[in-house]
Every structure is written in C-alpha cells, then in structure tokens.
Amino acid sequence: MTSSSQTAPIPVVGAGLAGSEAALQLAEAGFAVDLFEMRPQVSTPAHQSGDCAELVCSNSLGSALPDRAAGVLQAELAALGCQLLDLAKDHSVPAGQALAVDREKFAHAVTERLESHPKIRLIRTEVLTVPEDPVVILASGPLTGASLSQAIQDLSGEENLSFFDAIAPVVSAESLDRTVLFAASRYGHGEADYLNIPLEKEHYEQLVDTLLDADRHQPKPFEMADPRAGAFFERCMPVEVLAARGRDSLRYGPLRPVGLTDPRTGRRPYAVIQLRPENQAKSLYNLVGFQTHLRYGEQEGLIRSLPGMTQAEFVRLGSMHRNTFVRSPKLLNSDLEWRRKSGLFLAGQITGMEGYLANIGSGLLAGRNAARKVCGLVPERLPVTTLLGALANHVATAPAAHFQPMKAEFGLLPPPDASEMPGGRGGRRLRNLAKAERSRRDLAAHLRQYPLPRASAAPV
C-alpha cells in the first residue's frame, strides 16, 4: 500500500457520536482534524441543541454486565482507547447495571473537549459534497442533509442509499424450534435457505386479531419524515397496516404459502412466515415482511406466540423511521473504507450500524484506519470474535439485497468451542460469558499487532 500524500487536516464530516470519536482518535494520535458540523446553523427535527454528540433518543448506552452485548462492547471500546466512553463515565447517572448519562452534560463535555483540543478545528458549516481530500471520514448520520445525501447517492448509485428504514425483527438461530419450523425454498428452486413457520387457520386468525388490537409506537415527526416519498413505500408497509386492509391480506401478501410444502404434513400450510438468514453464518434470522410499528413488548409477545418461536431470543425488534444509510455490503470493506474510493471512510449510522456504542465504535475504527492510511499502513480489521469486529464484518458482508441496520449482539459472534465453555455445554449466559472472554483475549492479541499509529510516523 502506498502512503497518502495528505498534509492538510483530515476532514471529518459530522460531529455526532461517530464523528466526535473519530476526530478525537486522530487528534490524540497527533493528526490535525477539521471537524465539520452543520448544527446549529442548519438544524434537524431530532436535535435540540448545537452540541456535538447529542443523544436524541435514550440516554442509556446499555448494560455494563459482562454477559450482555453492551457490556462486552464497552469493554472492547475501553481496550481500544475510546475517548467518548471515558466522558460518558464522567457524566453517568444512576441506572442500575447500565451505563446512562446526563445527556446535556455529556454533550457539553464532548463539545468542550473538541473545541479545546489543539489538533481539532470545529467548523460550523454544512458540507454539501463529499470532500476530495486523500483521506476523509464521513459520519453525517441518519439525518444527513439533502445535498450531501445526493452527493453520496451519486457516488454509490441511487439504489444503494435508503431514506426510509423499515426493519423487521431478527432472532437468533439457536433459539428456534427446528422440530416445528421447516427449511425450504418455494417450489424447491435453489437451496433451502429459508426457515418457515407453518400457520394453520387458527394460528393465522389469532395473529391477525393480535395485530389489529396491539399497541403501536407513536413515531415522532422526524422519525416519519421522508423527504423523497412523503409516506410509506408499499414495500415498507407495516404488517399491522396490511392486516387492517382485510383478514386475508397477509396470507395473500408476505405470508403467502404458495410453493411451500410442510414435509411433516405433506401439504401446504394455511399461511407461512418465512425467516431469511441475516448473516453469512446463518446464526441470525429475519422475519420477512414483518416490519412493524408495534411497541417492543407487543412484538415479543406476538412472535413468541407463533409455532416454533416460544423461546425466541431477539437480536433486533422491528421499527420504521427515516434513516439515511448506504447499502454497505456493496460499498464498504470491514475496515469501513469505501471499496471504490481509496481513503474515504464511513462511520456511524450511515454505515448501517445501530446503537450508541456501535456508532462510537465505528468512529473509533474509522479514525484508527484513517491514521493508518495516512501513514501508509495496511488497514486494521478487527477480529470477528469481537463484537465491534463482527459488526464491521457484518455491514461489509451481509446479503446486500436485504441489508438493514444492525446493532451489536452476541448472535453476530461465532459460537464458542467446547474447550471455551466452563464445564462443557452451558446455557445462554455461559455461552455469552465464553464469547466475552474470547473477545477480550483476541482483542488483546490484535492490539499488540496493530497499535494506533502516531502522526510522527506519517511520511512528510
């Protein structure tokens, strides 16, 4: 790899969680950074202030327990030298065993840290195009401005940029009852990649009744504002809205059983819910066509009432809102560099990474790799046995046709070997603890091989 010729400050576009972390990673390593943030000159419907790293939804960064995905990801970020994690802990509020922050004090502290850092210039202006500098980090977030969105769209191809996020629930493969579900493809064409939940008439009628009566999430205006469409696309229609069109609308739509035969009965079910692999390892499955506005508790109860799903473990619950993100599997490597534009790194929700911690982690990884790019070093790709590495690998390698945002979950990690399990085979908590210990061990080994380069190592 040849080194970058960049001598000017490295542009970082967007001062949300990802952009702020990326800028601090670079600055702490001695690199000059121009950090661009359009607020407060250009506001968004979601933000309330002009502060950097403002949390617009929950104030919780998730559980700190070692057998929870958020706890493991926090440990990984700490080992990687995360800057925002320390500030979050400095401004934490009581939240049991979770890390939650005083959102105003946290955002103020991040902004003050950025404004006072001698290597960072915080520039309050809207960036309208993708900068042409040799090394750039784009972390403009899910509410990217219209002009920059168009520039990204032009760079990627129109079909690779989504302005409306219709998410169906995702469950872990190991929680599914394979004695009830059956694997098949329609009419036997191709591989039997889909798992199928067979519904007899009574199950189907019960499902429709539940959907019609269930409590729905009431979205905020910014969640539903789609500047391109103005309303739902037909393909993004919530399942409960489809059910309200008529009792048979679902079984003639996303739940149609045509071409599927249950091998246990030798006949076609009344309706079928299909589960599609969400990752290459087939450890996660997406409920096809089940994008929904139902409240989370309602979703969990409804799905666990389905045949073969009583023990379902949820990796992601369904939601629908505006969200600008690229189709990362077509565009990005697992080091978060754009495949066809050397030196352009993406970070944050625009990559399809969900959750505060994952967004901070993506900024950290993009910052480290931008530094490596400037210094002419090979890119850093984290072990897929770490949650941050597995998430970066997921957004780079997931099936592109159905790509949707994903947060860090244990289901992204390969299962532990028997030798890694204390006392042999164990339950979910023991499996998670084994994955957590493997993450710690593998990340420590990785960091010995890939230390963060310093600006003094960059070629003049």
The largest β sheet comes out as: 6 strands, antiparallel
The tally of beta strands, per DSSP, is: 20
Distance between the termini: 16 Å
Number of helices in the DSSP assignment: 13
Spatial strand order of the main sheet: 11-12-13-14-10-15
CATH topology group of the largest domain:
FAD/NAD(P)-binding domain
Question: Rounded to an integer, what's the Rg over CA atoms?
Answer: 23 Å
* Poorly predicted runs of 5 or more residues: 1-6, 222-233
CATH arch. level architecture of the largest domain: 3-Layer(bba) Sandwich
On the 0 to 100 scale, the average pLDDT is 87
Write out the CATH superfamily name of the largest domain: FAD/NAD(P)-binding domain
How much β-strand is present in the residues?
Answer: 5-15%
Helix content: 25-40%
Shape from CA axes? globular
What's the CATH first level of the largest domain?
Alpha Beta
What structural class results from the helix and strand content?
alpha/beta
- Count up the domains: 2
Describe this structure in words.
The structure is a single chain. With 460 residues, the protein is an alpha/beta fold. The protein folds into 2 domains: 10-163 and 323-457, FAD/NAD(P)-binding domain (3-Layer(bba) Sandwich); 168-318, Beta Barrel (Elongation Factor Tu (Ef-tu), domain 3), CATH 2.40.30. It has helices at residues 17-28, 69-79, 83-90, 103-116, 146-156, 201-213, 221-224, 239-243, 296-304, 328-331, 356-374, 387-397, 428-449, and strands at 10-13, 33-36, 60-63, 92-93, 98-101, 120-123, 136-138, 161-162, 165-167, 170-172, 182-183, 195-199, 271-277, 284-287, 314-316, 319-321, 325-326, 344-346, 353-354, 406-407.
